[in-house]
């Protein structure tokens, strides 16, 4: 567990009530400046958080940034989905059907949603 290696990490256990309940509890208990989600079947590039925080810090008005992501399937090369967006650009691209999204590719300023 990361919580054993890094005191900034916490493990929260609860009866299984689904991913939405778990995420909402995580949002309530989060104490940091940023929120990011990583499901058990996803992974981040080792520089993901560093690069996303750099982008977020480049403009204090950003409420969220989105990186795009790669999807891997057995026996097939990874396929890239999306690019780096800030919130207004991302919503416009999504509404124009130019951009899907995946929760693990977001970094959200906690004050933007809390």
Strand line-up across the major sheet: 1-6-2-5
Radius of gyration: 15 Å
Please identify the structural class as seen in this structure.
alpha+beta
Which residue ranges are poorly predicted, with pLDDT under 50 across at least 5 consecutive positions?
Answer: none
Annotation field: number of helices: 5
Number of strands: 6
Question: Overview of this structure, please?
Answer:
The chain is α+β, with helices and mostly antiparallel strands and 114 residues long. It is built from five helices and six strands, in the order ααβαββββαβα. It has a four-stranded antiparallel sheet with strand order 1-6-2-5. It has a two-stranded antiparallel sheet with strand order 3-4. The model has no long low-confidence stretch (mean pLDDT 82).
Topology:
Elements (H helix, E strand, L loop, with lengths): L1 H4 L13 H11 L4 E2 L12 H10 L6 E3 L2 E5 L2 E6 L3 E2 H9 L10 E4 H4 L1
Antiparallel strand pairs: 1-6, 2-5, 2-6, 3-4
Which structural traits does this protein have?
alpha+beta, 114 residues, 6 strands, two-stranded antiparallel sheet
